[in-house]
Amino acid sequence: MPAARSFSLKQARRLALAAQGFNGRQAPAPIKAARLNRQIESLGLLQIDSVNALVRSHYLPLFSRLGSYPQQLLDQAAWSQGRQRTLFEYWGHEASLLPMSMYPLLRWRMQRAAEGRGIYSQLARFGQEQLATIRRVLAAVEEQGALGAGSLSSRQERAGPWWDWSAEKHALEWLFAAGEVTVAGRRGFERLYDLPERVLAPEIFRQPVLDEAQAQRQLLLQAASALGVATEKDLRDYFRLDPADSQARLAELLESGQLHRCEVQGWRQPAYCLPAVKVPRKVEASALLSPFDSLIWERNRTERLFDFRYRLEIYTPSHKRVYGYYVLPFLHHERIAARVDLRAERAQGRLAIHGVHEEEVGLDEEGIQALARQLRQMAGWLGLEQIQLNCQRDGARRLGRVLF
């Protein structure tokens, strides 16, 4: 076994940023479908979230890395039919859009769900106790094609939160977790479910099922590629593997030499990387980040890498919020240098900036200029003609002088 490599914290940051697609090079315009698909393949997945305060979160990571791109390209990749469809929905890191190449690597998770393992206890219990409902809902999908939960529901009152789902919604979610149905498209943000053999390309759907260990090793290797350098917990979290599975597969990958153990300055836990990993000399990217961006979604890792404590405050009462409702971290030259509370006010055609909070080191003039460029580009990408600054902090005043 080779001697463990050692990385400074600065080197670890550069490894992580480069692995996540922040290489400082502007993607050529216009962005084509092939470029978008390569970026998603590199990341392994995009997390889906329903909050639409700015734009739904799965659109943002591509903007952060590629700049302005047609959102319909992602819609086409995720929910169209035929060869243009290159993504599928499943539980990756929470609800996710994943490249079709990942489908065989998640069949074991579907099989576990069908057995009542690896899913919410309430959903597992539903699968055991409500087989008649599940069979009825599956028969409706088989007969009628892509259906949403609303068109099947026997309830008269409006559904509440997820634990207040109708029986039909529970059945569809159980079938989805078990791989018996998949998402064919969306109506608004409502999932439309159909049989996977009618949605996925035959060469994907008919691939042999990999054994669990083989699939989990591939998922850990994909996570290592997307993270650059990572602890075991970082690697496991990327695709939400169980600790016992992750630790067993990691030992196998180390034994085979497919992963190497390494050390990172200031990290208490050992880290791991691919054998051929190379540290960039510098990373000069600037980007506004989704709260659910894979660069920062593991908050402890974000603190270790960037000395940046980040918590989403959407569900915090407004009078208790520190930074705002929908706050995007601003990455600039290897640091997360600021937080910006943004809202798309679509009826007024405006991007509203409700808060600008610089980190302790702050933004120099170049950083303020870079943030202004990102905000202008975002407004244009979202089709918003105006930018309104609703913050009186010092950083906001500096930004205003550059922005307007």
Structure write-up:
This protein is α+β, with helices and mostly antiparallel strands and 404 residues long. It contains 17 helices and 14 strands. It has helices at 9-19, 33-43, 60-66, 71-79, 107-114, 121-129, 131-144, 149-152, 167-177, 196-199, 202-205, 212-227, 232-238, 243-256, 299-306, 365-381, 394-403; strands at residues 5-7, 46-47, 87-92, 94-99, 182-187, 190-194, 230-231, 260-264, 271-273, 286-288, 327-332, 335-345, 350-358, 386-389. Strand 3 (87-92) and strand 4 (94-99) form a beta hairpin.
Write the layout of secondary structure elements.
Blueprint: E1 5-7, H1 9-19, H2 33-43, E2 46-47, H3 60-66, H4 71-79, E3 87-92, E4 94-99, H5 107-114, H6 121-129, H7 131-144, H8 149-152, H9 167-177, E5 182-187, E6 190-194, H10 196-199, H11 202-205, H12 212-227, E7 230-231, H13 232-238, H14 243-256, E8 260-264, E9 271-273, E10 286-288, H15 299-306, E11 327-332, E12 335-345, E13 350-358, H16 365-381, E14 386-389, H17 394-403
Helix pairs in contact: 5-9, 6-9, 7-9, 12-13, 12-14, 13-14, 16-17
Low-confidence segments, given as residue ranges, are 156-163
Name the strands of the widest sheet in spatial order. 10-11-12-13-14
Helix count, DSSP H or I runs of 4 or more residues: 17
**% residues in beta strands:** 15-25%
The Rg value, from CA coordinates, equals 22 Å
The residue-averaged pLDDT reads: 93
Distance N to C terminus: 58 Å
Feature tags:
5-stranded mixed β-sheet, about 400 residues, globular, alpha+beta, 4-stranded mixed β-sheet, single chain
